[in-house]
Amino acid sequence: MNSAPLKAEIHAEPTLRLVTSVDEVASLDAVWQALLARSECHPVFSSHAWYMAAITCFVDVSPRVLVLSQQGEVCGIAPLVWDAGTEHLRLASDLADYQDFIVPADSLDLARQLLDTILTSGAGISASETRRLHLAGLRQNAVVTRLMGKAITRNLAQQECWYADLSAGYDAFLATRSSNFRYNLRRAQRRAERSDVRVGESRPDQLAPEQLPELFLRLHLQRFPDKLFSRAEPQAFCRALLPGLFTRGLLRAFVIKQRSTTVGLHLTVQGRHSLAIWNGGFDASIATLSPGKLLLDYQFKTVCRERLIAYDFLRGDESYKRSWSTHHVKIGGFDYATLATGR
């Protein structure tokens, strides 16, 4: 009896396509989020929702999503945009502190295929846009950073990112702080109690998600009336993005209430093993009560209670971040000239 010869297994070559329409980006939601869950990227800053809000709320930004597929499965995403205002081909949003290519954990070869395609103006990316490639917000362990290797010099300004290691618990953390730090914290807590001020977390069943952007903008703009969120586009970004993240538990609202009125707010994003403060604000009426100290202390206790390991202050070298932190790292980036000449 003759047996038919076994056919050699055929492995399809990876395919790359460039997505440039908002509708097609919207259709990637499920596969994007599934790939994100397998990656080491930040679950909020690299989320499909964050990217969609960026391309729909900022008029100068248009999608340039490079999608890598193998045997019909999406296995790599470079979430780029073309910014007509700065004339940069860049990662999605300056409002996201940590950015990266989205690939399964430890899949540098897939990230390399994405980067090579960009640098060689493949898959429909124009050479003129490639020359304006500008990758910022890259952590030291980002796949793009690891891909470039130690020989590459970062030529975009680096920024400090401070964080507190809370893996040993709240009491162990507090013991590392100065006696002056602990005294000022206790004093702030006593003053808050005398002023009928309470700190807690508001969840979606207590604070309607659609009300969160307005609460944030009202409190934030009292403190920073002339900065980023005074502009229409960042405000639209908040209204488009925050309610959904809040509903899904990826954005958390820590509040200060005086009697029944919310007078202070920290919005934090949920990481894989940490909380990170994204933005906040407070009413001028409680400025003398050290609202930042009160909110941070409550959040540190929350991190420890939930057995997370860190509280992340994201980018910025403000003195209050240093006073609450135990470590820091740097984020930076590369532009086309470094990428093209250093490989």
UniProtKB/TrEMBL annotation:
By its UniProt entry, which InterPro entries does this protein fall under? Acyl_CoA_acyltransferase, BioF2-like_GNAT_dom
Which Pfam families is this protein grouped with?
Answer: Acetyltransf_6
The residue ranges of the BioF2-like acetyltransferase domain are 179-322
* Protein name, as recorded: BioF2-like acetyltransferase domain-containing protein
